[in-house]
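Why should sequence recovery work at all? Because a backbone constrains its sequence more than one might expect. Tight turns favour small or flexible residues, buried strands favour hydrophobic ones, and helices have their own preferences. The token representation captures these environments compactly. In the example below, the structure is given first.
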């Protein structure tokens, strides 16, 4: 077995599809994950906030080649027009239907093994996963380590209905979506937030998806890189009138209000048992809450000409600030595939 992917979410499927597109057969890839359906975890979260359109654009899909994008699949002239000016937001249903196709035609199910991996260890010839292996090339795509909960509140990413009076904690995309939802359900809505909302179309400024800005980012010394990543992690939601919600700001939830925590996820590699164990076992370099990675999303101390340890998803931010997006999943997937195929 040449490659292993640990994790079974969107980033794992993007990596799997990319390996398959490069000609790696299913019997040379093992996917160890908790969910056979790679969209299940994401779908539940997006469904809970009743997300109808993606925040990402036409190329925000999980197939290996960017073209054709979702705008073309959408088929309407309006979609094609909007995509020319970066204004097309694919419907969630279209994204999910396409992801199901990618799953089916890539052979994902042939490679999937239902198992939570606890320990990754570098050994001669690659990596052992809980003692199995060695696998020469391993991609860790374990996603977010859990929801950031608030006592007494339902988390926005868990199924819920709306009471007549709702207090939403947070100032990001989930909070903005929840203001709209609760208002549409006829509720009185108040907002509790630590800072004024930041408005931007994508969750990280578009420049950070370009090679030029990424090169500059990779040259930053660790302290500045850490500070920048913390700044970029601030919650945001898109500009535009459709998102302008007239909500009353309060410091505390008023008595009797339903409390919804649109507070996102717990943060940092320490919160992920597998990553914390790996860092401790191999004394890996970290900065603040970030795992230090090479620009191609590999762990430098454990990667050489014959073996690869890569990180995709939110834990890959040291290499790609927007790692927790579909574009970020593909960035890690492509670099991993290049390495895995170089030594075939
Ligand atoms: C509501 C919402 C809307 C979003 N909208 C967009 C959007 O429009 N566009 C965009 O680009 N991005 C969007 N994102 C961001 C991003 O695409 C998601 O966060 C995406 O789910 C990340 O995929 P992942 O595979 O890293 O993590 P996940 O989808 O969380 O998957 C990780 C999987 O790995 C499993 N796992 C964890 N640890 C182990 C282990 N040790 N062993 C085995 N399996 C393990 C988990 O159980 C889970 O199944 C959105 C995110 C959310 C929450």
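From this structural description, the recovered sequence reads:
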């Amino acid at each position: 077995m040449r490659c292993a992917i640990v994790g079974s979410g969107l980033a794992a499927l993007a990596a799997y599809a990319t390996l398959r597109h490069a000609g790696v057969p299913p019997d040379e890839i093992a996917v160890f994950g908790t969910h056979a359906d790679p969209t299940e975890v994401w779908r539940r979260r997006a469904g809970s906030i009743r997300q109808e359109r993606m925040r990402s654009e036409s190329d925000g899909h999980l197939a290996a080649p960017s073209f054709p994008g979702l705008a073309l699949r959408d088929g309407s002239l309006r979609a094609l027009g909007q995509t020319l000016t970066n204004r097309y937001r694919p419907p969630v249903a279209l994204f999910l239907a396409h992801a199901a196709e990618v799953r089916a035609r890539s052979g994902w199910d042939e490679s999937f093994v239902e198992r939570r991996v606890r320990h990754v260890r570098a050994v001669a010839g690659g990596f052992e996963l809980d003692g199995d292996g060695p696998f020469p090339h391993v991609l860790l795509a374990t996603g977010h380590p859990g929801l950031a909960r608030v006592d007494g509140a339902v988390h926005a990413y868990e199924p819920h209905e709306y009471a007549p009076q709702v207090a939403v904690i947070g100032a990001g995309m989930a909070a903005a979506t929840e203001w709209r939802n609760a208002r549409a359900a006829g509720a009185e809505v108040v907002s509790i937030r630590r800072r004024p909302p930041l408005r931007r179309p994508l969750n990280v400024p578009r420049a950070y998806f370009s090679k030029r800005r990424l090169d500059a980012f990779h040259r930053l010394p660790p302290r500045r890189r850490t500070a920048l990543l913390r700044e970029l992690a601030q919650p945001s939601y898109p500009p535009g009138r459709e998102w302008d919600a007239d909500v009353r700001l309060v410091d505390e939830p008023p008595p009797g209000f339903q409390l919804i925590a649109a507070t996102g996820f717990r943060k940092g590699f320490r919160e992920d048992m597998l990553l914390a164990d790996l860092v401790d076992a191999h004394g890996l370099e970290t900065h603040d809450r970030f795992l230090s990675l090479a620009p191609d999303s590999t762990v430098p101390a454990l990667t050489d000409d014959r073996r690869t340890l890569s990180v995709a998803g939110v834990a890959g931010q040291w290499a790609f600030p927007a790692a927790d997006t579909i574009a970020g999943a593909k960035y890690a997937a492509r670099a991993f595939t290049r390495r895995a195929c170089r030594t075939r």
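A few observations help interpret the result. The first strand starts at residue 3 and ends at 6.
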